[in-house]
Input
Amino acid sequence: MAVTIDLGGKVALITGAGRGIGRETARLIAAAGGRVAIVDLLEDSAKAAAAEIAKSGGQAIGVSADVTKPADALRMVEEALRAFGRLDILVNNAARWTVKPFKDLTPQDYDTDIGIALLGTLHSTRAAVDALVKQGSGRIINVVSDAGRVGEPFLTVYSAAKAGVIGFTKALAKELGRYNITVNAVAPGTTRTPGAQEFIQGVGEEKMVKAYPLRRLGEPRDIASAILFFASDLAGYVTGQILSVSGGYSTAG
Ligand SMILES: NC(=O)c1ccc[n+]([C@@H]2O[C@H](COP(=O)([O-])OP(=O)(O)OC[C@H]3O[C@@H](n4cnc5c(N)ncnc54)[C@H](O)[C@@H]3O)[C@@H](O)[C@H]2O)c1
Output
């Protein structure tokens, strides 16, 4: 018996999917037959990512939206529903992080880190949840971080934001299970994306990998693969779980 991941007929909306982990997730979901709404703050990246998928035979739309704004979150879901007629999978992936000692952080930094990762996840989920409940099925996958599980120095507020999303994931899973909606999270370690480039260069990749039992940093494909698992039928009985995809960096329960 061959086991395949088939997302044919399913529709996914991925935030922050113009580049990095989100873009790779869009590619993988499309390769599994899913139709994809690629949402990004930057319209050009969202459209370019959608065009790339269309070029390789998949179906995708690019939507520009700022997940920190509830009205944008509602509009991005409406655009996905208008284009594809349904919504099955929401991937809350958009985030930014401020790397600074806590004593140097400003309230504006708090707004950035908490506003996108935590509040953006709440706004996007709130906008999508009615469609999923009405349908009687759905998958919500939050991209968090090992920083939110074990705490990361110089990423204090980001760690707090991601810990918040972890709590939200667990609580919402308990609330939405009765509607056949699963809610899970993937927690990457440092992953080689455009957004992480400066951080990796600052610390030095050779130095960093020593903290990773598998002795390499993550690639976007590593994280996207775990997201694809949660989106697939293989994970139908898994909810409220946080899966670290970080080469063994964090083994927290
Ligand atoms: N790369 C890492 O080392 C790493 C480690 C742990 C967790 N993560 C998490 O993985 C996810 C993706 O990170 P990445 O490294 O691919 O980031 P990235 O910076 O490469 O890409 C993030 C994308 O999100 C978009 N975005 C930013 N703010 C937005 C907003 N308000 N609304 C809509 N889109 C917005 C950006 O334009 C960008 O295209 C994030 O949740 C991040 O916290 C990344």
Observations:
- The chain has one domain: 11-244.
- The mean pLDDT is 97.
- The domain at 11-244 is CATH 3.40.50.720 (Rossmann fold).
